[in-house]
Amino acid sequence: MNKCVFLDRDGVINKDHSNYTYSLDRFIILPGVPEAITKIRAAGFKIVVITNQSGISQSIYTRFQMQECHDFMQEKLNCEIDKIYYAPWHPSVSDSLSRKPGTLMFERAISRFDIDVSQSWMIGDKARDITPAKKMGLQTIQVGGDNDGLADFVSEDLLSAVEIIIS
């Protein structure tokens, strides 16, 4: 079985914008993220991004625009992300078990990569990232200054979160 670090995208890997991040001019990789990704990989973890992208179903942006951002992210992170799962749905348009805080994206990754949840982690910046991870039995770290009291650990950013995992 494999161990894995699941990552939320906006607010963990890249700067989060209140009105969505879907164009390359706004897709800014946060400081320390490339180093953090390298450390995760060197420690023998799979890396899977789990992200809600509801702007697609709300017709704010397209799958193509999102894919451009994901391709850019992979390029900047040396293609070290094993898979990116995204949920394009929004409750105002359609219900979905994929959308966090649902667990379906996690379940798909766990099955596809034969993941041992007892040795795996979720790093997110919001309660909706932490809630499904806890349901799945993952250890959790909330980053970015917010603390909803749900995560096992709280950290300033991805790089310091990775230090918790590998120490």
In words, what does this structure look like?
This protein is an alpha/beta fold and 167 residues long. The chain has a single domain (4-166), classed as Rossmann fold (3-Layer(aba) Sandwich). The chain contains five helices and six strands, in the order βαβαβαβαββα. The chain has helices at residues 33-42, 63-76, 104-112, 127-135, 158-166, and strands at residues 4-7, 46-52, 83-87, 121-124, 139-143, 153-155. It has a six-stranded parallel beta sheet, with helices on both faces. β1 (4-7), α1 (33-42) and β2 form a beta-alpha-beta unit. α1 packs parallel to α5 (158-166). The longest helix is centred in the middle third of the chain and has 14 residues, at 63-76. The chain is globular and about 40 Å long. The model has no long low-confidence stretch (mean pLDDT 95).
